[in-house]
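Lay summary. Proteins are chains of building blocks that fold into shapes, and those shapes determine what they do. In this project we predict the shape from the chain. Here is one chain we studied, written as its sequence of building blocks.
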Amino acid sequence: MSSNTSHKSYRPMTILTFRLNHQLHGIEPLGYHLTNVCLHALVCLAYFKFCAKWVWGDVGLALAAALLFAVHPIHVEAVAGVVGRAELLACLLVILGLELYIRCLSTCESAPFPCVLRPAYFALSLMFGAVAMLCKEQGITIYAIYVIYDVLIASRRGTEELIKEPSWDALFTKARPLLLRFITIAVTVFCLLAFRLWMLNGQLPNFSAEDNPASFANATSTRVMTYVYLLAFNAQLLLAPITLCYDWQMGSIPLVERVTDIRNASTIVFCLFFGGLVFKALKAKSSECRVVLLGLTLVVLPFLPASNIFFRVGFVVAERILYIPSLGFCLLVVQGYSKLQKILGDRISIALKTTLALLIALLMWKTVARNMVWQSRETLFRSALYDNPHNAKVHYNYANFLKDSHRNDEAIEHYRLALKYAPEHASSNNNLGTLLGDNPEAEKHYLTAIQSNPQHSRAYFNLGNLYRSQEKTNKAEKALREAVRLDPKYVDAWTVLGCVVGAEGRLDESLQIHERAIALDPLHADAHNNLGAHYVRMERNEKAIASYDRALSISPNHSVAMTNKGRLLRTMGRTNEAEKLYRRALDIKRTGTTLNYLGSLLFNTERYAEAAVAFREALNIDAAEDVEVHQNYAHALSKLGNASQAIDVLERLLQARPGESSARVHLAALLSNTKNLEKAVRVLEEGGETDSEVLYMKGNLLKDMNKLDDAIRAYSRAVHINSKHASAWMNLGAVYHLKVAYSMGSPNRSFSLQGDYSTAREKYNEALRLDPRNEIIKANLEKVARKLNN
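And here is the predicted shape, written in a compact code that computers can read:
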């Protein structure tokens, strides 16, 4: 969700290691994690060696620092998360580069401004810095570390002399070696930054308020107070890593907007402590203070790119960013331990060592526990929900996991929670819409996603699909065209757009769109499948079969293409081939749609028992409310002589969906077949008088019951609703015709035979106008004409 992933592809050295892993391990995670653990071990060994030789010259203190670094829980994200490899590689190169830089100056420490006596080491240190930057952007800060080390540690005496008696002559003569090194470093940094900008096409990554809310705050005071508080917060993570989380964005750390915010107290304490530490390190000249100065340099400089001071970053807090700064933190902790030992003496030395060992043991326990959290996506997300329940991004990520696990109800709940904390979050709105399906609420979420992010092509695509399912073709086309405008290579959007345009009858234009989709991605199976469906619409069956075959050659398990080809073959009379394709598709994925097609085929080949099994399974899988499947199942049951069971199937459907008129008509037909005409009429009357088919069926039943006046009213209402209902007009004429015949023998005849025959002829003529080839209507008209002529 965060935009900071947009520029990760510009870390070539990190990508190279991933490619090597892929060659060795494929997509199995063990190899990637094992590589990260090995890299962390190398960093710890290099750190131990560096501390033992260049910091203290004491193996015990170096071991304590290395152990503290090795087991610190803040490193779990960098080591357990595969993408943290960038930090591991960069950190290793920082340690090695700094050691090389010190080595190239170490033989001339007696001079005020040491010179480079080992140019190869100096060149290697510059190269290691460049490679560190190619692994992780933080790596470029190694050059600043070189400069600070050179000025304040290696050349401290000369720097102090130059400050006391500043002159251009001293700068260009005595400090000439230092100046040349700085010029070389400056040129190297300039070239690397130019290379970096070239790789980014001259643009810095774009971030949103969701990624870094403080940097988008309107009030300067809010930005400053929040930025400084975040420094204190990161220090707290190093000092007391009690609550850790893989993500600290979107609500995890609210903005500091008021001076009275209690969090400003921790900011003040941090600034006073840190300022005092810097002041003492700069003023004192002892070797202990030089260690403190080196520690502060390693803490501060690698963290600066993440501080928002120089440019906006794409996160609030990121634990992996503290991997390199923790080198300096561990130096400071162990230096403090060493200082306490000297102050308190041997009497309390054992207690101090025990305390340090206990601290390392506690950190180790926390690291082991934290690694358990990183075992899977679910454990990681659930842990984050516990630690940061108001973080919208955590709810969003967990909802994505639930969606991938087909736990849709839970996913919907967490998407809603994400939107509770970030109502305009585009991706949460879009993904929630996809889970809501045809629910009208889905449209609202897609539109919100588009409003929040007008470049969200996926939201336009999903909105277009929703409109397509609702048969709002104009809106669907508009949304899909916007999706392909934003992303001209969006093949899915092109192929669905082709389907929408084809449904509107613009077949040639639709064909061009489908062909464009395939040109963009010739191996896109869905595009070939949709082209096949378009050829079916154009009645070019052979081309349709070729397209379906191409889709299946690309994706042999494309069950939709199999089903579509089976439907086409069935219409072509190739029933056996169609049945085989349906069964193959069902072996891959059992869907109610395919089972319905198979059941219909079996029904039409008079295998009613097999058809009933297929329809029943369709209802059990994903067609629980599908009217067509219910009716087909009921029809199959009636063919098997299970009329009562068929009636029960349709009655259950109508209880759930009382507005389904076709099911009501079908149920009435079954009841009439069982001679239960009264109940059949009641079933139809429960549906109201708004559907012409229901009224037509009701008229038929009433006619069979000799309730001719009621039948006339039913047919008259039917043709009033649908004036083009030829059968209703014909039966209306027939009832008037029958009414005369039935009344001929009645002693109380009180109507005009001529008038009723004329009414019958009028209705027959309207029916014949709508259905001019109907021989029954013609025969009835002849009968009426003879009666009228007598």
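What the prediction tells us: The first helix runs from residue 12 to 25.
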